[in-house]
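Closing statement on the D-xylitol-5-phosphate sub-project.
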Amino acid sequence: MPKQSNIIAPSILSADFSKLGEEVREVLSAGAEWIHFDVMDNHFVPNLTIGPMVCQSLRKSGIDCPIDVHLMVEPVDDLIKMFADAGATSITFHPEASINTEKSIQLIKDLGCKPGLVLNPDVSLKTLKPYLEELYMVLLMSVFPGFGGQEFIPETIPKIASLRKIIDEKQEDIRLEVDGGIKESNIFDVASAGADTFVAGSAIFNKSSYVDAIKDLKDNFN
Ligand code: DX5
Ligand code: ZN
């Protein structure tokens, strides 16, 4: 399977929540393809963020791009249902947060969304093995989840390359997404290792021009 087209997915965790709709519209018109929606429960991760009502109100306000929901919650199934109802496009979860990973993947599919698994930096690629054929996407964390603005963990690069190899060998049509600390200075290495979907929070929302920020990221794809 050839590598799929590159996608920039701004993480709204770093957006100004007092004007979220405006922020989302602005990054989309600046060239972002998806919106990355970080859901934290103050239990699976220490932080607490946004839930399905926010996703639904973005949809109601006319946001029609793919919404990539990253669940950092435990357990996952109830929120999978709520986010599917709220208009999520893809839903990714951490396998250690699910009571039954296979059933949670099937639930996402049955509800008409695209399933993904997320691996923390210390979780082995072997974890994916029983599920790979069922997945639309694998998300590799390049920071420990919980907060935006952390430093990219360099050991993620060989992990991306290994996963790329596995996906290519299996000839599976699976997106390889990377999340955490991605910026202009490292996106070339992340893309070269084989990622095709790039989450970026602070590297976009902390800049004064989202057009320039997204252009700077895209200019560094290989
Ligand atoms: C981390 C989140 C990420 C993060 C990305 O827990 O899953 O999506 O907000 O933000 P940056 O790009 O600032 O690391
Ligand atoms: Zn995320």
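Residues 93 and 202 are 22 Å apart (CA to CA). With this model delivered, the sub-project is considered complete and its resources will be redirected to Aim 3.
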